[in-house]
Write a structure and sequence with these properties.
The structure is a single chain. By secondary structure, the chain is of the alpha/beta class. It has three domains: 168 residues, 3-Layer(aba) Sandwich (Rossmann fold), CATH 3.40.50.300; 63 residues, Helicase, Ruva Protein, domain 3; 130 residues, Zinc Finger, Delta Prime, domain 3. The protein has 18 helices and seven strands. The strands form two sheets. The chain has a five-stranded parallel sheet with strand order 2-3-4-1-5, with helices on both faces. Helix 3 links the parallel strand 2 and strand 3. Helix 3 runs parallel beside helix 6, helix 12 runs antiparallel to helix 13 and helix 15 packs across helix 16.
Length: 372
Amino acid sequence: MYLLAGPDGFQHRAVVDALRAAFVPEGLREAAEADLDGPALQPADVVGVALTPSFVGRRLVIVHDAPWFAAPRGRAARAEAAGEGDGEVEGEDAGEGGEPEAAGTPETAAPAGRRGRAMKATKSDPLGPLIAYLDNPPPDTVVVFRSQQPADSRRKIVKRLAEVGAVLAAAAPAGEELAPWCVARAGAHGVRLQPAAAAALCARVPASLDLLDQELAKLAAYVGDGGSIGTDAVQALVAPSREESVFALMDAVAEGRGRDAFGLLRQMLYQGEAPLGIMALLARQVRLLVLGRDTLDAGGGPDRLAAAAGGLHPYVARRMLGQARAFAEPDLEAALEAVWEAEWAVKSGRLDEESALLDVVARLLAARSRAG
């Protein structure tokens, strides 16, 4: 018995694939596996399928979007708050996050023996059949419930499932956990990912395990089985995100490379990036530079900046401090004011978006020159 609860589809698929590989006989997936649509079923329907014998001797039942494990809503939640509930969603709350309307029961037959005990339920206890099933699940069947919502550990059904099976939180790692995840995941592709390359990869790819895994597969094919992925490979093969492109633009500004800064800006515009979107990211970068300058003046390092910025990735924090060293605080404040003035110029119609963006980059370069 497994409950995969949380929004990260990559981890859902990874667990299901591992169970399928370990349990379902090769070439017999259609006969041994049942995929069910949770919102269209009652728990009794799932139990009926799980108790239906498989002619291959094993059965893997996957219930997608299972609605019975998240925190209750509607009248059920209000009843629990008032101390009138027992931690389970009542059937009458089907329209407000409770159990769905009864649908046709697939693959069920007349209850008998184990089936009979599991299928006994009243209208007020739709989860009764499932709880009864958990008391004595057949050893030749694996049931996997998938839910995009986090499991409510206070619910009786979740507690019972955790006792007899496994409740797994499918939440993607974030922040400082993401780069170590990439390093570990690279091993599944038969390669080694250097820590610096992992940080560079996370900076270039949005925080999506699916996208990161796709890029790791591409990098693994490039270096070959048993190879090592360095930052050079990441920079050569992984297209920078919009955020990373703005970082590179600010690197050029901090180093006084005006030609490169405008070249990067032209490239972003040519690729279809919206000028106001770029300007918003530049404004964020300048705000982080102000924090970085304050951190440096106070004798702090990347950890302090990361905390002040609300959980900034350490790799990003180190880069921000490197950029901040090129500016004096008054010039950064003038740069931030330049961004605000450009945004106002666009909103008031005094400048078009692209002209305002070019003006901002020019003023950032001027601020850096004054600091130099």
